[in-house]
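Field reference: sequence -> structure
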Amino acid sequence: MSEKQKQVERERKGVLQLLLQKTGLKYKEVVDAQIGMWMAGNLDLLTAEEKKQFPHLVF
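Structure field:
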């Protein structure tokens, strides 16, 4: 990885930390929310039979 790429990555992490601090969120909360949105957007890939494996979820 070039020095420029390393600097960009450090700055991205810095911005992330600052935004998390300002919003009062934890990294895990952001990741969980994104995963939930991704799952909701891909539920059409599951068959009716596969959905039956998760009786406590509403599809």
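Note: The chain has a mean pLDDT of 97.
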